[in-house]
Amino acid sequence: MCMEYFVYYEFERLDKDTDPASKLESGPFCNVKGTSVIENLDSVTFTCWVDLPDDAPGQLVWRNNGKEVARTQEKTNDYMKRVFDRSEDGDEYTCIFEYQNAYFCLELQSLNCSEEFIIDVQYPPDVSLRNAVGPSVAVIEGESYTNFCIVYSNPSATVEWIHGGKVVENYGLLDLQNVQRYQNGTYTCHANTTFWNSDSGSGSLSFKLDVQYSPEISLVGANDDVVEGSTYSRVCSVESNPSSNCGMAVRGNHCHRIEHAHSVKCPPQSKRDVHMPSTEHVLARRE
Fold first, then answer.
1. Where would I find the beta strands (DSSP E) of 65-179?
2. Is 20 exposed, middle or buried (0-12, 13-18, 19+ CB in 10 A)?
3. Is the pLDDT of residue 287 over 80?
4. Does 184 or 236 have the greater pLDDT score?
5. Which CATH code of 3.90.380.10, 2.30.30.30, 2.60.40.10, 1.10.3720.10 fits the domain covering 2-118?
6. CA pair distance 61, 73, nearest whole angstrom
7. Are the beta carbons of 208 and 185 closer than 8 angstroms?
8. Fold for domain 122-213?
9. Choice among 54-58, 205-209, 257-261, 267-271 with the minimum mean pLDDT
10. Which of 5, 74, 85, 246 has most Cβ atoms within 10 angstroms of its Cβ?
11. What residues does each domain of the chain span?
12. CA separation for the pair 143, 148 (Å, rounded)
């Protein structure tokens, strides 16, 4: 009977004198100045404390996604995380006060901070293109072409397609119907975002649209009769993509051709016509 009374008395005494929970009105206090950070740039200090004497037993522990990252027997725990990367976006940090409860035979007990802190890791746009294999894409005039700009960023970015110094689309989809030769050239997807501190981050990626079309032939020069012995010239002009060269006929059966991968025939308007770029010929009487 005496032994039972002694044990009961000891636990009551230990509970009153050494159990930190009996002296706490709430769990530890926590404070974090800003949970939005820029990737590989900003640091964060996590602070938690308990309102207990310095010699009171117990430890303060910071945890990241449930994993311990900092522990101290001091009554304040300042944990600094110096840099973050995007894989840590959404990580959860919480502080707990751990102690051994004398009333429950020194069983480990804990009190949680009332707040949990979610890290917002911000980073500039990472840009890729869905339908551009290599730096150049060939399209035949009159066809359609679609490309999509894929952007990963935090916060969300604004997206623009730029061609010839002008914005042609103000979202991720570039949809060109009935493509014409004037649409040839470089297209750039540009993305921009604004971070928590009002700084901006951007990213871009470009490709060249090569609009191809069949040769268009024109003859440049006088088309009138000329006086025998005078100088006369005609120019065979060819516009095409890929480039072509004109087969040139001089006085009927005399033919001159520049050899290239592509060639077309320039039909003479008359037997006297000379189809040779930047070349002059003196006309003589035909026998």
1. 67-72, 76-81, 92-101, 107-112, 117-118, 120-129, 136-140, 145-154, 158-163, 166-169, 173-176
2. buried
3. no
4. 184
5. 2.60.40.10
6. 9
7. yes
8. Immunoglobulin-like (2.60.40)
9. 257-261
10. 246
11. 2-118, 122-213, 221-282
12. 17
Only one residue has tokens 């995007």, namely 86
Query: Whole-model pTM?
Result: 0.69
Closest Cα to residue 272, out of 237, 199, 221?
221
Whole-angstrom distance, CA of residue 90 vs CA of residue 121: 7
**pLDDT category of residue 236 using cuts at 50, 70 and 90:** confident
- Residue 163, helix vs strand vs coil: strand
Rounded-to-10 torsion of CA 255, 256, 262, 265 = -40
Model confidence pLDDT, tens digit, residues 10-28 = 334 444 455 655 666 667 8
